[in-house]
Amino acid sequence: MSNLIDKSSALKNMTTEQLKVLASDIRADILSSVNTNGGHLSSNLGSVELTMALLANFDPLVDDLLFDVGHQTYTYKILTGRSLKALRKLGGEGPFSSRFDSPYDKYCNGHASTSISVGLGMDIAKRLENDKSYTIAIIGDSSVSSGLSMEALNLLSTQKNSRLMVIINDNGMSIGKDIGFMAKKFQHLRNSRFYFRTSNAFGKGMSKHKFTWKIFLKLRNLKDHFKSMILKDTVFEAMGLKYIGPFDGHDFLNLDLAIKKAKSLVENGPIIVHIITKKGYGYPQAAKDSKGDYHGVAPYFAEPEVNTPKTDYTSLKETAIQNLMKKDSKVFVITPAMEKGSNLETIFKNYPERCLDVGIAEENAVTLASGLALKGYKPIVDIYSTFMQRSYDEIFEDISRERIPVLFIVERCGLAGGDGASHHGLYDVAMVKSIPYTSVYMPFDQQTNQLLFDRVAFKKNIPVFFRYSKEELLDTLNGECTENFVKYNKFSSDYIYIGVGPKGYLCLNELKDLNIDKFMLLNLLPDDSVLNELNLNTYKRIYFYDPYGIYQGTAELLSDHLKRQGYSGEFITYTFKKDFYTFGDNKSLYEKYHLDFKEVSENIIRLEKSRFVLQ
Fold first, then answer.
1. Where is average pLDDT lowest: 200-209, 229-238, 590-599, 606-615?
2. Per-residue pLDDT tens for 84-119?
3. How far apart are the first and last CA of the chain?
4. Is position 88 annotated as part of the catalytic site?
5. Is there a catalytic annotation at residue 279?
6. Model pTM score
7. Does residue 362 carry a catalytic annotation?
8. Looking at 49, 93, 318, 362, which residue is catalytic?
9. How many CA atoms lie within 13 A of 518 on its CB side?
10. Helix (H) or strand (E) segment spanning residue 184
11. Distance CA 459, CA 481 (A)
């Protein structure tokens, strides 16, 4: 991209034709980089012109541009001098916004619906410091409808002196539909350059004298009354917020008008700016996509013959849920905006009356499940590990304290690769461990998955969590199974290996020639009665490998058990420390943090060999 710029200020002096050429170049760069590295495609293709218009009208170092989620910031990254060549790769450019990586990124994100609250906090701080810089929250139509956004908008409506600008990037949901021919004509008038310039100049002229200013206010009130008779209020106007739009998000003149109009109006209070964009704009396959296939794509998505489908743990879980729903008409599936990501599309199609996607509303998903359970239904909440963090209070208060059976399918456990710190699924076991009356399990193959669905799902009057990683399904040897662990061999050795999840089994397999006891743990929050079955206190050395969680989860529970038993041997753990971890492909990350199953198995073999040498 020879004509790409790294100074956003240059946008101000470009002609419309030059801006169109640049937009085309940016899309080419995004497509190339995402095809090589994977990432969020449709959202970034759809927000190119909007981002360019924002950078032409604001100073990204002085003003605070807050992109909600941050999954649509590739154009912003390019135009603020960053390269996407190593996007989402270890040491490359991150997937979302991070204030630790660039002065142009004003906060860290990755989860939806935070921008308005953050922006309002920044705006309040600026007002206290008499800082006149702009604060702009750019948020999608799905994110703005979530509870957190609505709470922030409700508060914003009381902040009459706020200078917060909220830009709704609407690429699908209708907001405040206008009714009738007159409404359309009026809308066209109020969003035209002539109307904006004329009304603005008229207002400034009338404000010069007290008498004429009073006349202007009367005329404006009359105009607003006339407008309210023709146009139906949007939800924002009903909340008492000023609203303008919708504007064409792919037309530079329209966008420039929208932003200039908003900058003028925000001097007298917060403003909502409604922009219409098309997800996947400029790439026909993504633009036609109505299911979300191009929202997040794997590397080489444009070369489908390379991406041969593989059976993973999400598919395994999907089959088990289907079987449950066939057998039991009380089973009900809930997901927070993850119908496609969690591979639930077939289930939703087959059982539409017993499936519900609640949108980006994790808290609602969990508490809704409690209501179903209290009426005798068997709710399954299918949710990503990283998003479940948002529903801690609801799990605690509405599920656990009620002691009702809800099955949580916890997706994307372990490292989340290129999505990085905001999405790694390392913390759910430690989180749930602090909540009374909970059980957490992690299958690692078809046998253990079916066993858990048969023996554990809805068999206890408490919430139960089944964890799944985003990995290719393993072919494993059958072991001696209980619902708590799988025994692969028992030599009555003084040394034992205990693994968790698919990588735990891969490590165990690397140790097949090692003469030590080998177990796989399924129950990740076992109580003393379960652990006593393993007689851990009799071993001189215990190796525990859990590459799917932090130490404060299962490893700490095992350590506490051993201390209470007066254990005097060695307890060696291979798991993540309590910290935030960067982005990159999973293999590189496991190697970086010395938790790759091959390195762990080599370490265990080396320790065991040294034991024989010492003896």
1. 200-209
2. 999 999 999 999 999 999 999 999 999 999 999 999
3. 65
4. no
5. yes
6. 0.88
7. yes
8. 362
9. 19
10. helix 180-190
11. 18
